[in-house]
Amino acid sequence: MFKKYKALKWILISVTSIVILLLLFGWWFMSLLPPKEMYANVSKTQVSDLPYLSQNVISSRGKILAIVTSTDKMGDTDKKTGYELTELSRAYYVFEANGFEVDIASPLGGTPPIVIDDEDMGAFDFAFLNDSIAQYKTKHTIAVKNIEPEAYEAIFFVGGKGAMFDFPNNKDIQKVVRELYQDNKVIGAVCHGPAALVNVTLDNGRPLLENKTVSGFTNKEELLLISDAREIFPFLLQDGLVAKGARFNEGTMYLENISHDNNLVTGQNPWSTWILAETMIKQLGYTPKYREITAEENAIRVLQMYEDHGVDKAKQLIEQICEIDRKPLARQLLAMHSVVGVMRGDISRFYNLIGLTAYAKKKTKDIAY
Question: DSSP H helical segments within 284-365, as ranges?
Answer without folding.
Answer: 295-309, 311-319, 331-343, 347-363
